[in-house]
Specification:
Layout lengths: L8 E4 L14 H12 L4 E4 L18 H4 L2 E5 L4 E4 L7 E5 L4 H22 L4 E3 L5 E5 L16 H11 L5 H15 L5 E4 L3 E5 L3 H16 L6 E5 L4 E3 L2 E2 L14 E4 L11 E3 L3 H12 L2
Parallel strand pairs: 1-2, 1-10, 2-3, 10-13, 13-14
Antiparallel strand pairs: 3-4, 4-5, 6-7, 7-9, 8-9, 11-12
Helix pairs in contact: 1-7, 3-5
């Protein structure tokens, strides 16, 4: 791979890209992050998780007030966008949060998906209802990821076998179609994504975080999408034409940027995504290189 160019902003996933797991100490990635933040290079964490799961909810403790001016987060599958205007705790500058009635509609859609999978295909699922604007439907309830909640090797093949055994002939694409059909029947247009273990259905996804932050960076700092790089470990295809959660960082606005995958898993990736491999170490090395 040719040497990386110097980027004016860096977007990246957290679990599996910056840190090995959300319970792992973030110290190895903090030093290269600090070096870039001191140079006024915006760093943007894009993750489906909540703030409490990023460095134990204490990320701001690792950086100075000046460094925090260049740190941004897009979390909760598009639900929350954070910045550190006061140098202390993060503040939400944009959010996509439904009222209680709208959230309950999302819950009903997801429960109906659960019922459909059980009634028509005899697939047992669990549902996490506590997310701010979406639900996580666990498709492989007997498969425990432990504290490594990102896509694991072999999971895609395991899910495909499960779906085939239970008569879901269209695979993951059929799951997405089932979700879309039920959403539309409830008068909703929801985003359904799948990382093999979890089918996530809600109002937004990572693309909303990316687009909102790109617009803000261009407005406030003149940084354009082609000045940015986007790093993740879940770009790989989960089915024909369907890609992992980090592929949602590729939008009409962001597609002029550069996209990199640190996963060692073999498989198809979206056009334009470069496979780097070597996991979190590759990302840390990239950050260190950008600081020089």
């Amino acid at each position: 791979m040719k040497p990386f160019k110097q980027y004016k902003a860096i977007f990246f996933d957290w679990d599996g890209t910056a840190v090995l797991s959300r319970k792992a100490a973030p110290d190895p990635v903090i030093a290269p992050m600090k070096a870039l933040l001191k140079k006024n290079i915006p760093l943007v964490i894009i993750s489906g998780t909540t703030y409490d799961n990023i460095a134990g909810g204490k990320l701001e403790n690792y950086f100075s007030a000046d460094e925090l001016q260049n740190l941004f987060l897009g979390l909760g599958r598009g639900a929350f966008n954070y910045r550190y205007d006061d140098g202390g705790a993060p503040v939400i500058w944009e959010e996509v949060i439904p009222n209680k009635d709208a959230l309950l509609k999302i819950h009903r859609v997801c429960f109906e998906i659960h019922q459909t999978l059980l009634k028509e295909y005899d697939i047992r699922t669990d549902i996490v209802f506590s997310r701010p604007n979406y639900c996580k439907i666990d498709l492989m309830v007997d498969n425990d990821r432990g504290d490594r909640l990102f896509l694991q090797g072999g999971e895609i093949e395991t899910l495909k076998r499960l779906l085939k055994v239970h008569g879901v002939g269209g695979g993951l694409r059929e799951l997405i179609k089932i979700s879309d059909t039920i959403s539309e029947a409830h008068g909703l247009k929801l985003s359904a994504t799948c990382d093999a273990k979890f089918l996530e259905v809600g109002l937004s996804d990572k693309s909303d975080n990316v687009d909102a932050t790109l617009a803000m960076l261009e407005r406030e700092r003149g940084i354009k999408p082609e000045d940015c790089s986007f790093w993740g470990d879940e770009y790989i295809g989960v089915d024909e034409g369907l890609f992992g959660s980090d592929s949602f960082m590729i939008t009409e606005k962001s597609k002029r940027g550069d996209f990199f995958d640190v996963s060692d898993t073999t498989g198809e990736r979206p056009p334009g995504v470069a496979r780097v491999g070597n996991g979190i170490e590759a990302f840390h090395d990239f950050l260190r290189g950008q600081a020089h």
